[in-house]
């Protein structure tokens, strides 16, 4: 890797020398959050020169609490964005003209975590408890989980605004906390908890998972930049495959970009993200595959719990033709 340069709050990765920069097609990717192993596939693809091999000059823009990927793509600041499917559906309903083109995360990373002493082993055990959520679009899987247990979210328990530190559950201020497999759950383990001291409810196992990190564009941009999009997906998928095959190396690479958290946490995160991108039994050649059934379930929950006001037109919400061209499937 020759150079990492930060410009205008973005990460511009210029690596390799396959062709002069002027001969490359520029493409900008907007992430959902700050540089971390959640997005390691794109960073690895840039570091290994996969984008340049496809004739692309990639700029990777970090996200943040005040950056909304959908707005960035809609306004033309970025060509391609990363967001959760539930959020994308909301903007599609508003008529923003978005379409999903790939689904790197095949599984939900959402957990509900509690200390063993709370006795929360199943969703039904949440009755009468204080349960944390970040809200802001992150609560819908939790709502589905509660209903699956026959619990009313407004009457049978107390929903509490949760921060991102996990201090509330550590101190006992709340009984159960939302946590991502690759982040907050790891924070608990790093703070001294062992897995035996924690009870975990996994949304995938409970049958209430909703799809998370996906790649989206405007339909208009895809129609006029189809070849570029296919090249971007081809390089990105190759980057994700490399990152999932060696998450330790990927975590170290991401850590060097920003050093906002510890090296150990980035490596831990990379290992957990790899399990979402290439779950057990999943063919790595299908990285980015959009599962229609999982997409439909996400759309159904989004409607049922009030994120959407009408059923999503799922058949128009994603277009896997570019992914198929990129993977030869």
How would you portray this structure in words?
The protein has 329 residues and is of the alpha/beta class. 38% of the residues lie in helices and 19% in strands. It is built from 14 helices and 12 strands. A 7-stranded mixed sheet has the order 1-2-4-3-5-12-6. The chain has a 3-stranded antiparallel sheet with strand order 10-7-11. Helix 4 packs across helix 12.
List keywords for this structure.
three-stranded antiparallel β-sheet, D-Maltodextrin-Binding Protein, domain 2, alpha/beta, 14 helices, seven-stranded mixed β-sheet, 38% helix, disordered N terminus, 12 strands, 329 residues
Structure, briefly:
This protein is an alpha/beta fold.
Topology readout:
Blueprint: E1 3-7, E2 10-14, E3 25-30, H1 40-47, H2 50-53, E4 56-61, H3 69-74, E5 80-84, H4 85-93, E6 98-102, E7 110-115, E8 130-133, H5 140-148, E9 158-161, H6 167-171, E10 176-180, H7 184-190, E11 198-202, E12 213-218, H8 219-224, H9 226-245, H10 247-258, H11 263-277, H12 292-304, H13 314-317, H14 321-327
Parallel strand pairs: 3-4, 3-5, 8-9
Antiparallel strand pairs: 1-2, 2-4, 5-12, 6-12, 7-10, 7-11
Helix pairs in contact: 1-9, 1-10, 4-12, 9-10, 9-11, 9-14, 10-11
Number of domains: 2
Termini gap: 31 Å
CATH homologous superfamily classification of the largest domain = Periplasmic binding protein-like II
In N-to-C order, the SSE pattern is EEEHHEHEHEEEHEHEHEEHHHHHHH
Note the quaternary state here.
single chain
């Amino acid at each position: 890797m020759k150079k990492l340069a930060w410009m205008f709050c973005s990460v511009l990765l210029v690596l390799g020398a396959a062709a002069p920069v002027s001969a490359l097609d520029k493409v900008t990717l907007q992430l959902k959050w700050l540089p971390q192993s959640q997005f390691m596939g794109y960073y690895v693809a840039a570091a290994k020169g996969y984008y340049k091999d496809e004739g692309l000059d990639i700029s990777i823009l970090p996200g943040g609490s005040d950056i909304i990927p959908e707005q960035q793509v809609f306004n033309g600041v970025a060509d391609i964005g990363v967001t959760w499917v539930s959020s994308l559906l909301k903007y599609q309903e508003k008529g923003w003209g978005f379409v999903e083109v790939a689904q790197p995360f095949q599984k939900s990373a959402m957990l509900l975590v509690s200390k063993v002493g709370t006795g929360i082993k199943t969703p039904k055990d949440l009755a009468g408890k204080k349960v944390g959520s970040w809200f802001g679009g992150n609560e819908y899987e939790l709502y589905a989980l509660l209903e699956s247990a026959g619990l009313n979210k407004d009457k049978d328990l107390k929903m509490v605004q949760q921060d991102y530190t996990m201090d509330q559950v550590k101190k006992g201020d709340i009984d159960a906390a939302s946590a991502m497999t690759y982040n907050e759950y790891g924070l608990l383990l790093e703070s001294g908890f062992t897995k035996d001291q924690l009870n975990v409810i996994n949304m995938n196992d409970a049958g209430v998972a909703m799809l998370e990190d996906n790649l989206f564009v405007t339909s208009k941009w895809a129609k006029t930049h189809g070849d570029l999009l296919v090249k971007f997906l081809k390089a990105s998928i190759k980057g994700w495959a490399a990152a999932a095959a060696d998450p330790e190396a990927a975590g170290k690479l991401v850590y060097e970009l920003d050093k906002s958290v510890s090296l150990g946490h980035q490596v831990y995160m990379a290992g957990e993200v790899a399990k979402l991108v290439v779950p057990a039994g999943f063919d790595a050649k299908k990285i980015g595959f959009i599962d229609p059934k999982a997409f439909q379930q996400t759309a159904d929950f989004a409607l049922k719990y009030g994120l959407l006001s009408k059923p999503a037109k799922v058949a128009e919400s994603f277009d896997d033709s570019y992914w198929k061209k990129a993977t030869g499937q």
